[in-house]
Specification:
The structure is a homodimer. By secondary structure, the first copy, chain A, is an alpha+beta fold. Chain A folds into two domains: 18-85, Arc Repressor Mutant, subunit A (Orthogonal Bundle), CATH 1.10.10.10; 88-253, GAF domain (Beta-Lactamase, 2-Layer Sandwich), CATH 3.30.450.40. Chain A is 46% helix and 19% strand. Chain A contains nine helices and eight strands. The model of chain A is unreliable at 1-12 (pLDDT under 50). The first copy, chain A, binds a DNA duplex through residues 15-19, 36-38, 46-50, 52-53, 56.
Chain lengths: 260, 260
DNA sequence: CGGGGCGTTCCATATAGAGGAAAGCGTATC
DNA sequence: GATACGCTTTCCTCTATATGGAACGCCCCG
C-alpha cells in the first residue's frame, strides 16, 4: 500500500479534467437510482447551470436517459457493458493482485474457474518458498474436491454440494461422509473462505476465496497453497484475511459493486 | 424523422462540454477494441497531451483499463452495464416510439414480451381508427399463435417452433400443419417481420417485429393490428417497413448496437 | 549508434466552462 | 384565480481550466 496512485478517497487524481471528473461524478450518483438535476447540483456542490450542462451532454450521448423522476443510466451503458464483458480477461486482471499476494505471503497463488462439474486451473504465481505446489495452469479436477473448486461452489445450494461430492467420489461415499461434507461447506460459506486439506495424502493445504463479477456471481476463485507444514493453524486467520482482501480487490477490479 | 435531436452525424450537440465530449469520443473509439493513446490522438484530431490526459482520467475512474495492446473498456462499465440493465424499463423506452408509429399509421400498436411458452402483452397505444383491437395489457396467449409471439420466436430453432406450435394447439395438429407452420416461420424470419392473421376467426390481422437488447437477444416485440379489412395486402409492405423502422429505433434506444 | 515510435511531464496561453441572474413552466397552496 | 415555490433552461461575463507545443525518458529496430 505504499505506492501513491490510490484512488480510494475518490476525487483528486488526474488534474486538468475537471469537466470530465464532474461528469463521471454525476454518473456515480445516478448509479444509486434516478435523480434530478437540481439534486445533483446540491450533492456534488456545483451550480445548477453546470449540472444541467453536463447532464444534457451525457444525455445527448445516451449515457443518461430521462425518466419521470429524474435522470437514469442510459442505453449506451448497456452496449458498453456487454462489450466490456467480452473484452475483459479475468486472468489478466487478477495477475497483479496474485503477484502482490504471493509477495506478501510467500506462498504459491492460483486462480481457477468452474467448468461444469470440474474446476480448471487458469494461472498461478510461484511463491518464494522452496516448496512449490505442482498444479499447473490447465489442470482439471473435480470441483468438489479442491480448495479452489469448493470456493467456486459457495453459492450453490446444499443439494448441489451433495451431488457434486458424490460424483467426485464416484459414488463411493456413505451418507455420513456426505453429511460431514455439507456441514463443512456451510462453515466455509459462513466465513466466505475455504480451508482445504488435500485428500491425495500429499499434505497440501490451501485457502481459497471466490471472486465475483459485476453481476455478483462467482466467476473465478483465488487460492494460496503450500504444505500443511508451512500453512499452519496459527497462520491461518491472518492468511485467510489477506486472501480475502485480494479477492475483494479483484472482484472490484472486474466490476463487482458489493452485495446490493 | 423531422425532429431535430438526431445524433447520427456525431459530434456537435451540447456546447460547453468539449472535454467531456472528447472523452466520450475516446470511449467510442475504444469500443472497436484496444487502441493506443497515440492512435486516439490521431484519429480524433487532438494533441497527444490531451489524449493522454483524458485517457489517464478515464483509467483512474476505471472506465478504461490498460492492456498489452492499448486501452480497453474498463471494469466500471461492467458495473454500470449491469445496473443499467436493472434500471431500464423497456415499456417506458418504447412508449414514445409506439405513439409515433400509431400517429403515422393510425393503427393500434402493441408491445409484448415472452414468458416461457406464453406471450404477454405489456402496453398498447390505441390508434385513431374507429375499429380497435381489444387485447389489453396483461393478456397472455400462447407464444406460437399471436403475431407478437411469433416475432418473439424468430431466433428460435425449428424444433422449438414445432414444439410450441404443437403445444399451443394442444397436440391436435397434423404433421402437415406443423410443416406448414415451420415454412411460414422461415419466411417471417427471412424478412425479419411477421404478418399474422388471427386464428380466432375475428378477422384481426397484425404485423409484428422483434426488438433486440444490448446483447442482441430479442427482448420484446412490437406490432400493429387492425381488421384485415383495413390492413390490406397493398398496404402491407409500406406498413411493415414502418414497423421495422420503429423496432430498429427502439432496439437502438435500449442499447442494441447492430449484429456483430 | 541514431532514428522513430510511444508514454509522460512542463508550461504559457486562449478559450472553454463555471456560475450568477433571470426567464419559462409546471405544480402546489391558499 | 392569484401567489408562491421548485425545477429546467437560456444568456452572458470572467477567470480558472484545459489545450497543445516542446522536450524528456524509454524501448525496439535497423
Amino acid at each position: 500500500m505504499q505506492d501513491g496512485n490510490d484512488k480510494k478517497d475518490g476525487t483528486e487524481a488526474v488534474k486538468g479534467t475537471q469537466t470530465l471528473m464532474r461528469a463521471l461524478d454525476i454518473m456515480d450518483e445516478v448509479i444509486d437510482g434516478p435523480i434530478r438535476a437540481a439534486d445533483l447540483a446540491r450533492k456534488l456542490g456545483m451550480s445548477k447551470t453546470t449540472a444541467h450542462r453536463l447532464v444534457q451532454a451525457l444525455k445527448s450521448r445516451n449515457y443518461l436517459s430521462v425518466t419521470r423522476d429524474g435522470f437514469a443510466l442510459g442505453p449506451k451503458l448497456l452496449q458498453l457493458g456487454v462489450l466490456a464483458t467480452e473484452q475483459i480477461d479475468y486472468v489478466r486482471v487478477a495477475r497483479p493482485f496474485m503477484e502482490l499476494l504471493s509477495d506478501r505471503t510467500g506462498f504459491c497463488v492460483f486462480v481457477g474457474k468452474r467448468e461444469g462439474d470440474w474446476s480448471r486451473h487458469l494461472d498461478r504465481v510461484t511463491g518464494t518458498q522452496r516448496l512449490r505446489v505442482a498444479t499447473a495452469p490447465g489442470d482439471r479436477r473435480p470441483v468438489a474436491e479442491t480448495g479452489l473448486g469448493k470456493a467456486l461452489l459457495l453459492d450453490e445450494d446444499e443439494a448441489s454440494w451433495e451431488r457434486l461430492y458424490g460424483e467426485a467420489k464416484d459414488g463411493k461415499v456413505t451418507p455420513a461422509q456426505i453429511q460431514a461434507y455439507v456441514v463443512e461447506m456451510r462453515g466455509h460459506k459462513a466465513r466466505g473462505e475455504v480451508l482445504h486439506d488435500s485428500e491425495l495424502g500429499d499434505g497440501v493445504r490451501s485457502i481459497a476465496v471466490p471472486i465475483r463479477d459485476a453481476k455478483g456471481q462467482i466467476c473465478i476463485a483465488i487460492s494460496i497453497a503450500s504444505a500443511a507444514h508451512y500453512l499452519t493453524d496459527d497462520l491461518r486467520d491472518g492468511l485467510a484475511e489477506q486472501v480475502m482482501r485480494s479477492a475483494e480487490q479483484i472482484s472490484a477490479a472486474v466490476g463487482y459493486a458489493g452485495p446490493r
